[in-house]
Design a protein that fits this description.
The complex is a heterodimer of chains A (about 550) and B (about 200).
Chain A: E1 2-4, H1 5-15, E2 20-23, H2 30-36, E3 43-46, H3 50-64, E4 68-72, H4 76-79, H5 82-90, E5 95-101, H6 117-120, E6 127-130, H7 137-149, E7 155-161, H8 162-166, E8 168-170, H9 191-202, E9 207-211, H10 213-217, H11 221-231, E10 235-237, E11 252-255, H12 262-270, E12 273-277, H13 283-286, E13 297-302, E14 316-319, H14 322-329, H15 339-351, H16 365-375, E15 381-384, H17 388-396, E16 405-406, H18 417-425, E17 432-437, H19 438-444, H20 448-453, E18 459-464, H21 469-478, H22 493-499, E19 503-507, H23 510-520, E20 527-532
Parallel strand pairs in A: 2-3, 2-4, 4-5, 5-7, 6-7, 9-10, 9-12, 10-11, 12-13, 13-14, 15-16, 15-17, 17-18, 18-20, 19-20
Antiparallel strand pairs in A: 1-8
Chain B: E1 4-12, H1 17-28, E2 31-39, E3 45-53, H2 56-68, E4 72-77, E5 83-94, H3 100-109, E6 113-118, E7 121-128, H4 130-141, E8 145-150, E9 154-157, H5 171-181
Antiparallel strand pairs in B: 1-3, 1-4, 2-3, 5-7, 5-8, 5-9, 6-7
The chains are: A alpha/beta (about 550), B alpha+beta (about 200).
């Protein structure tokens, strides 16, 4: 059967089971939009800016545990995706990005709306394609989904010139498999590596687990818990590893890093064996590399062989998928107990709790997250932007379910919170809480229109302190209070919401906030809540930039 | 630790592969001394010989990052393997009736070839390993080098062992073969293990 390139692409998406994708039309993708009506089972969500299409696909992917798909036209449409693609690349989120390009005979001639998007995205995609024939579409899309969703996951871009959408090619069904010689699946670890890791862990006196995004992506929470229990090892997570370990578990000790829990940072620094699982020993998590716990032996389990040994000397490297590896490791782990070690951390925890909730009636970040946790019984999916509100959301919400936490960790993309929450809401019915900064919200608030159009029950909770809070905190602490370009003017967020046909409410006191939580019970539409926070609250604890984890401070006096 | 390391990579012969490799080196801040690309024994694959500066850790990262490129089929660090390495240089030396004989004496010493003769210049072809080419260049400098081009290193492991990529369809075997190739120590054990 002969089909146009546009139809072949849609047949491929259908074969992949894509239920929703996020896009924005333009000249060169018109042949594709012309066929969308014939594929009503594949929902196209029209965003209001292409950046939002990429973030929405990313948010959807993280919550659904499937590959997110987005689409943009050539030139500015494609370049607007770049921030979203990089965000997904840094956090290893599976995504297939479709772009149109100018007709083949115009490529390289600087035609209208031409951008070399495969060149531009070379360092921010796991792989990309520029297709020059309609017959290449099916195999390339099959490969794109395969590459995006296996190994260390990531975004793959497929760029299709306008006339390739129109060209016909033979369609004899979606390809069954891929043949990628340079891309073997490395899920199963080598036995000798597993044995060495098990020996190291069994011999440890003060072991610690640092669980990363790989645990969440591999959906290995059950295996992680069993591993921790059997080896009696306390578990920390990285920022992105949050929700990989149920935080109500006795062995859960929060997350480590620049604004991680004090006791978590100390535990990582005092351990004799550090077991990194599905994480990459990033600088924000580990502090100054040269002074991170120099005597610890490092066991590192990761799917990406290039991550092992990249930042730290590794005593026991294990290259494999987290779930596959833990399943093979578990039978070799001896039942163990480390009461003294746990007591040591518990004591640090008792002396240095992460509890910066202050008495009073005004709204503070820590109090607000705790109140939200109570109102939602700790069951909500939380999406955040980047900054102070993100850190409070990480510190004070008790995450227990995998994929309950969605944040831009590696790239730290402000403005992520609005479109990512919107995309994530397509993956689940229960309302998603988007914890927004008042700065980040203003970057992508145009998506309120999309949210309203689909009547998505997202709760946009703006942690509004009228400042770029995290930047202000740095200016206060490290630049002698020299505030510059951080005092943000802003629209009336309630009126803004209402202008989009979205419910808008405001809370300035704790009592009002509690009332808002009560009012929203059972409400199944979108809402924007302008929580007016104390203006100059700081996030504690903190590892100053360039300092070691052992130098974590708990207030400005410690500087 | 060698400062000049030799890496052999087999890559799919597709448009843009060189750009991917170059982009990776730029992005990760690796220093390429030379990079040569050409056909190899298998149609559809190209063979790259890459000479990089760096310590063990950097070279290990180069190999691992290179292998992450989908179009890169295999990567091998053959710095410490017994190997033959060669490069070719074309050197245009100024030579007139007065000193041509002297130049030709040096040519003979290096078993180089004269590939073009002009009343005031010669083009010489020097073939050998990097050290030999360096030495020849130094010697010819006294006559005045007008122009020079060097191909960069190509290399091949001695004996029956090859750097050919594994032709394996089974994914597990492929993974094992690749893991055995990656890493600076034998058996794929990582460098810098604290043991």
């Amino acid at each position: 059967m002969r089909l146009t390139g546009a139809r072949i692409l849609m047949e491929c998406l259908r074969a992949e089971g894509v239920e929703v994708f996020f896009g924005y039309p333009g000249g060169v993708v018109l042949p594709l939009y012309n066929t969308l009506g014939e594929y009503p089972d594949i929902k196209h969500v029209l965003v209001r800016h292409e950046q939002a299409a990429a973030h929405a696909a990313d948010g959807y992917a993280r919550v659904a545990g499937r590959t997110g798909v987005c689409l943009a036209t050539s030139g500015p449409g494609a370049t607007n995706l770049v921030t979203g693609i990089t965000t997904a690349y840094m956090d290893s989120v599976p995504m297939v990005v479709l772009t149109g390009n100018v007709a083949r005979d115009l490529i390289g001639r600087d035609g209208f709306q031409e951008a070399d998007i495969t060149g531009i995205t070379l360092p921010i995609t796991k792989h990309n394609y520029l297709l020059m024939r309609a017959s290449e579409i099916a195999p390339a899309v099959k490969e794109a989904f395969h590459i995006a969703s296996t190994g260390r996951k990531g975004p793959v871009l497929v760029d299709i010139p306008k006339d390739v959408f129109i060209e016909e090619a033979e369609w004899d069904g979606y390809p069954q498999g891929v043949s990628l010689r340079g891309y073997p699946i490395m899920d199963v670890p080598r036995e000798e590596e597993v044995v060495k890791a098990a020996e190291t862990i069994n011999a440890a006196k003060k072991p610690i687990i640092i669980a990363g995004h790989g645990v969440v992506q591999s959906e290995a929470q059950a295996e992680l818990v069993e591993f921790a229990e059997r080896s009696d090892t306390p578990v920390l997570t990285t920022l992105l590893g949050i929700s990989g370990m149920p935080e109500d578990h006795d062995l859960s000790y929060g997350f480590l890093g620049m604004h991680g829990h004090f006791y978590a940072n100390m535990a990582a620094d005092k351990a004799d064996v550090v077991i990194g699982i599905g994480m990459r020993f990033d600088d924000r998590a580990m502090g100054r590399f040269s002074d991170f716990n120099p005597t610890a032996k490092i066991v590192h389990i990761d799917i990406d062989p290039a991550e092992i040994g990249k930042n730290f000397k590794t005593h026991a490297p294990v290259n494999g998928d987290v779930k596959e590896t833990l399943t093979r490791l578990l039978p070799q782990i001896e039942q163990n107990s480390h009461p003294e070690w746990l007591a040591e951390i518990d004591q640090i925890m008792a002396q240095h709790p992460t509890d910066y909730v202050e008495e009073g009636t005004s709204l503070g970040g820590p109090w607000l997250v705790q109140a939200l946790a109570e109102a939602t019984e700790g069951q909500s999916t939380i999406v955040t932007g980047v900054g102070q509100h993100q850190m409070w959301a990480a510190q004070y919400y008790p995450y227990t379910k995998q994929r309950q936490w969605v944040t831009s960790g590696g790239l730290g993309t402000m403005g992520y919170e609005v479109p990512a929450a919107m995309g994530a809401q397509f993956a689940q019915r229960e309302p998603i809480w988007s914890i927004c900064g008042d700065g980040g919200f203003q970057m992508t608030s145009q998506e309120l229109q999309t949210v309203a159009e689909h009547n998505l029950p997202v709760r946009f909770a703006i942690f509004n302190n009228g400042f770029l809070g995290m930047v202000r905190q740095w200016q206060e602490l490290f630049y002698a209070n020299n505030y510059h370009s951080v005092d943000l003017g802003q629209p009336d967020f309630v009126k803004l919401a209402e202008a989009y046909g979205v419910r808008g409410v405001r809370a300035t006191t704790r009592a009002e906030a509690m009332q808002v939580f009560r009012d929203l019970e059972g409400y199944d539409g979108p809402v924007v809540i302008d929580f007016q926070l104390e203006r100059e609250e700081n996030v504690w604890p903190m590892v100053p930039a360039g300092a070691a984890l052992s130098e974590t401070i708990e207030s400005a006096e410690d500087l | 630790m060698a400062s000049r390391n030799t890496i052999v990579a087999h890559v799919e012969d597709r448009p843009g592969v060189l750009a991917r490799v170059a982009s990776l080196f730029r992005r990760r801040g690796f220093n390429i001394e030379s990079l040569t690309v050409g056909h190899c024994e298998e149609p559809g694959l190209s063979r790259m010989t890459i000479v990089v500066d760096g310590d063990d850790h950097q070279v290990d990262q180069v190999c691992r990052q290179l292998f992450k490129l989908i179009d890169v089929v295999s990567v091998q660090d053959i710095t410490y393997a017994p190997m033959v390495d060669r490069e070719l240089a074309l050197i245009k030396v100024s030579a007139t009736n007065f000193n041509r004989r002297e130049v030709l004496d040096v040519v003979e010493m290096f078993r180089a070839d004269v590939v073009d003769v002009h009343s005031e210049a010669l083009i010489l072809q020097v073939l050998g390993d990097e050290g030999k080419v360096d030495a020849a260049v130094t010697m010819f400098e006294q006559f005045g080098i007008l122009e020079m081009v060097r191909t960069g290193r190509i290399a091949m492991v001695r004996g029956t062992e090859t750097t050919k990529p594994p032709a394996i369809s089974d994914s597990q075997q492929a993974a094992a073969a690749i893991r055995a190739m990656l890493g600076r120590r034998p058996e794929g054990v990582l460098p810098f293990a604290s043991d």
